[in-house]
Amino acid sequence: MTPVVVIVLVYFAIMFAVGYWAKSRMKSSRDFLVAGQTLGFFVMAIGTFSSIQSGFGMIGHTANTYSWGVQAVVAAAFLVPLAFAVSWFLLGSRLYRLARKYDVYSIPDVIRIRYPGRAAHLSMSVAMFVGSVAYMTAQVTATGVIMSLIFGTSVTTGAIIGSAVVALYTVAGGMLAGAWTDFLQGLLMVVMSIGTFFVATSTVGGWSTMLETIASHDVDFLRLDASQPLTYVYTFIVMAVLGTVAQPQLITKFLMLRSSSELKWGALVASVAYGITTLFALSVGLSMRALTIEGRAPELANIDNTTTWFFDNMVSPVFAGFVLAGLLAAIMSSANSFIAVGASSLMRDLTSALGITVRNEVRWARLASVFVVVCALVFALYLSQVVFLLGAIGWAAFAAAIFGPLVLGLYWRRGTALATTVAIAFGIVSNLAATILTAQEVITLPAYIQTGGLITCLGIVVFIVVSVAVPSRESFDRFADMNRPREGKDMNLV
Amino acid sequence: MRVDRVDRLVLLCFVATAVAVVGMVFDYWQLVYYAIPVLTALFLFMAALDRRDAWSTPVLAGVAAFGGVLLALFVAGNVLLHTDGWIGGLPAATAVFLYAVWPVTTVAAPLLYAWVYHTWLRHDVEDAEPESAA
């Protein structure tokens, strides 16, 4: 048994142990969906950053840095820590107060309380389910690749084993297990990123020597306008910042805090932790470029292999195993959050929007979790056309659908249910349309257009315009009710 | 219905976002670029309102100072974009982002939140605690 396999098996054993511990404490859907509202700031903040920092954040940003230059991390990662601070500013107090006043376990729950009628609640529930399966599908594919590298299996077998591991501890322990495994996975990612930064830069003589090597060969590689147009780069920043604030795996974490005092330091912990993990993409991407210039690494035809080539060839097997465990952690921490979000939308939100009462919510939440994982596995492994479409319903669709209705809606009394439904539909349909039309070459977009950021901003504009154009007294009254001081926990405001 | 502070802030957010959209569609990168610090500051101003839509003067000053520093760093990044200057092994504009914007936003923005929460927003959530309600 190789050191890599041993490290990863130990990692799996810890995840199972957390799942078993959480299962023994599982008594209600509140425990399953919002960790019983027992989280302290450190666990919540590390869990929040790790669920945002996905496999794409570690492997994809590394590949883009190797290919585009420093502008890749500027575009996708440098301003994300700021987004954590903005999230705590905009959402922290308001969501905490809401979670103490009502039984709020999910984003559709917030929409149900904030806006009258079923349309907004139902459309957000559908968006959450479809979006969660979409995200899970991407994580299943990434898990398959990493697992196949570790265990020497096929990607399909790796995806099935990896998904089974995440499903097992999430189904057993819900978000209680999810939050604590996210926490442990986040710590692993932070330690792994610090280690990787020093190892990667030292392979090319240190930070300064690495930059000198790159600059001597191609100065433009280090410039902000290296290969992608500046409009594309800055639109990417807008999508990264606004999108982070409006991701369900982040927003639901605010509903899990045990007391208001836990709000104060969470933003700092999440921001710094995310900032540290950015060092991974920055150092491996630039080191690989320097190694290529020095002739010690080949020019990679497929940039997605940047991370795996580096750890296959430039570090010891033990350190490579440690890093692969860290990459699995990045993927799994995002996956378990989306299993819980998807299960909640299916078992609690969709049913409540349709007027169906669910008894024994924990059992149904577990079944819904299994359903989300099975859907993602089937789509990822057997229905490539569905994966292609689901890929469009990711980050930017959530951003366009959630930012206006939820983030602005918590502050702005003029936000309406109709505008919410329109913004959600716009976010999903426009992302799908842009993906299909560009892939089928029906339209060709200029290189400077970054569709995700554009659709995110248009979603906000649409929400504001529709709210002002078609005002709603009922939505205004709901806003007033929502902000009235607490008199007792309001269980069923429908 | 009278126009209140949030309405004005949402209007400004709408203008900033719409301007950014114009930049994204017609390739005016400066419109997108400056929308980032402007929108950030507007969101922080909005979040600094308590649930009675009131601001605290020191908090307002703190948020304005952070917004000003962020905007100044973005201006510096823009001005240095096409110069030949180098800082810390990087072209000057890249260095502004790597050595200033990144650390400042990673550390200063959350510290600002901790201070704003402690001095102002904390009072907003105190009555939401179960013991307060009891």
TrEMBL record, chain A:
Compartments where located: Cell membrane
Protein origin, superkingdom: Bacteria
GO terms classed as biological process: sodium ion transport
Keywords: Cell membrane, Ion transport, Membrane, Sodium, Sodium transport, Symport, Transmembrane, Transmembrane helix, Transport
Membrane topology: Multi-pass membrane protein
Main localisation: membrane
UniProt name for this protein: Sodium:solute symporter
UniProtKB/TrEMBL annotation, chain B:
Name the record gives this protein: Uncharacterized protein
